Amino acid sequence: MVPVAANIETVKAKIAAAAREAGRAPSSVRLVAVTKTQPDAAVTEALAAGQRLFGENRVQEAMARWQDRRAAFADIELHLIGPLQTNKVKEAVALFDAIETVDRPKLAQALAAEMKKQGRAVRCFIQVNTGEEPQKSGVAPRDLPALLAACAECGLPVGGLMAVPPADDPPALHFALLKKLAARHGLAELSMGMSGDYEEAIALGATCVRVGTALFGARPPA
Ligand SMILES: *Cc1c(COP(=O)(O)O)cnc(C)c1O
To answer: Is the CB of 179 under 6 A from ligand 1?
Structure first.
């Protein structure tokens, strides 16, 4: 058994230390516990340990796992951290509190329309493909201004940027680029940093770190 509660304490302590080291308040960094593909018992244990902010990368899986739990715990907060297809926008707006992966005008428009229809405000982040990897989601840095303009035009509020750096690059370069882009566009939130590099991300300004393996152990193969 993975000691989930102890892992949460350890990671939180490291987050706080990294924030202080950077001259920031520990409360300025939020831990998004990434539960995708983890066994249900791990989720139950994290909830029992007081964790309330979670990340999932697939709408369908998140619905199955969280719809009932949301009714039981009013203060659960869910972030979508995986790619979103426009045909899942309705479900995503109904379930999630934040969508971190807005990466194209069509999706921004669909989200804005659906939020209006449901009368529900979901916080949105733009995912930036800082490494410009062809297989990865996210808008290319050079296309970010146009996407932000499209979001403004359709009335989609954007609170920040999110990135997943290339696996074989030093992540700090990508964190620094994301921070620079956010500053340039006056965006306050920076979702960056995972199990292997969240302390580095905090040093470079992360306000949300998305941590799975360090809390729940290795994910079972899909
Ligand atoms: C799975 C995932 C994470 C968590 O990664 P770990 O290395 O397990 O901490 C973070 N962000 C995104 C977008 C993910 O898909």
So the answer is: no
Indicate if ligand 1 lies below 6 Å from the C-beta of 181: no
Burial class of residue 139, CB neighbours in 10 A (0-12, 13-18, 19+): buried
CA distance 97 to 145: 24
pTM of the model: 0.97
Contact 63, 80 (CB under 8 A): no
Burial 78-100 (b: 16+ CB within 10 A, else e): bbbbbbbeeebbebbbebbbbbb
DSSP string, 46-79: HHHTT--EEEES-HHHHHHHHHHHHHH-TT-EEE
34 Cβ inside 6 Å of ligand 1? yes
| 146-205 pLDDT, tens digit each | 999 999 999 999 999 999 999 999 999 999 999 999 999 999 999 999 999 999 999 999
| Alpha carbons 147 and 50: distance in angstroms, whole number | 37
Mutate to test the pocket of ligand 1, among 210, 213, 219 (most ligand atoms within 8 A of CB): 210
Residue pair 17/203 in contact by the 8 Å Cβ criterion: no
**How close is the Cα of 48 to the center of ligand 1, in Å?**
22
